[in-house]
Amino acid sequence: MRASLPATLLLSTLLAACASKGDIPPSKHISQSGPLKVHPGLLGQPVPPELQQEVRTATTTSTAGTAESAIKMDPVGLRTQRSIYFDLNSADIKADHDPALRAHARYLAEHPNARVRIEGNADERGSADYNRRLGLKRAENVRSTMLNNGAAEKQINIKTLGEARPKLAGHDETSWSENRRADVVYERED
Known about the structure:
Elements: H1 4-19, H2 49-60, H3 75-79, E1 83-85, H4 98-110, E2 115-121, H5 128-148, E3 156-162, H6 173-179, E4 181-188
Parallel strand pairs: 2-3
Antiparallel strand pairs: 1-4, 2-4
Helix pairs in contact: 4-5
């Protein structure tokens, strides 16, 4: 009974906050530098015909081969996936992140003045030194994958943050899995 009291209070507070009719002032909105476009298909919305045409063009004019034709979203929509997640104590890139990394690399290849920084992160477990090395290895692997898919070496810098910048605060598997990542940060988009 006692353990459920904080959960009940939290739930009632969240429900009350969601039920409030007041608008959030513009200063409270989350902001990000650079244009961030979300493909309507990622939001479960119908895809307008002009974007459907763009998808067909992107997949039929691809030079990357057969795997590229399986992508069902436009390159900009895939570029909105800016975090690559890893397993515990691993720097191996999972296959489900390949389409997003190819889209980032394709964008960089098509825009030679664009620059990105790959920030490698780790969860809080492990020593600070180990987490810095693991974050660096994750960033290096993401960079290598993007270089192999057409990006130029001068366009990609890497940085390790180790456990210093968690995406989700907490001491549980959900938090740790969000913090085992490498982020693609656009410093300049052209």
